[in-house]
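Subject: for your reference before the review

Hello V.,

The reviewers asked for a structural picture of the protein, and I figured it would be easier to keep everything in one thread rather than splitting it across files. Below is the amino acid sequence we used in the manuscript, unchanged from the supplementary table.
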Amino acid sequence: DLVTATEDWSVRHVIGGIVPRLLQRSDETRLDYTVRHGCFSRAVLSNYRNYDGEHVPALLQRHTISGGDGTLYRGVWLVIDELNRAPVDAAFGSLLTTLGGQRTPLTVPTSTGEVAVPLPRDFRIIGTLNSFDRHFLNQMSEALKRRFVFIDILPPPRSAAAAEQALALYRALLRLAEHGMPGVLAEPEIGQAAWGQVVQVRRTENASVPYTLQISDEQAAPAIYRTSGGCSAQFACIGSLARPRSRQSTVACSPDAAAV
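And here is what came back from the structure prediction:
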């Protein structure tokens, strides 16, 4: 279950609470109130059979979940993007005990009161955060930090520049092919993409260098260099390749990517 944190998050968004809703009938529209589960409660309850997104199942029984491609999964995890853009301590405050590993159940609000729901032992929260936009971010207390394991994802080294370039161009060519850009051919089934006779990218069997890049026209093909960011190089490539060739020498992009 993937959600994006925002600065207006509260306990209602994470655990749940009373929210307004409009009931429309043939002759009138009136305001009503209902209990809606937050993202954490929905993710936890999705691990139990017969959860419909609104009501806590009478029998809390785990079940296997089938993905869109038929893959079977043991359960559902919660992924929160841009976690520290929300006031996480205010929104997660009541979950500190539940997340403390003491097998304390989650208290889920319902229309008839609160229901204690066991937290599956294999349930996980994955949060992404950054520390660059400090003026727009919220701090996490030490108590909340202790509930998580922090993993720093650093930018690839300079030695991987060629592999990054190839991957960024491959993804850019796929996007441009989807939009029908003339001259761009993409065959994702076999891992090949090309822009005329200028750039060709092919998938390899080497895990450390998954794609190889062949450039026939050094003047027209963009040279991508970046120190951080996962998608900036891709969008710089898209901007470069999508422009007329007479205007390809410069591309405006974010500070963590440059195209020449």
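For the response letter, the relevant points are probably these. DSSP finds six helices and 15 strands in the chain. Confidence is low (pLDDT under 50) at residues 221-230, 244-260.

Happy to draft the paragraph if you're swamped.

O.
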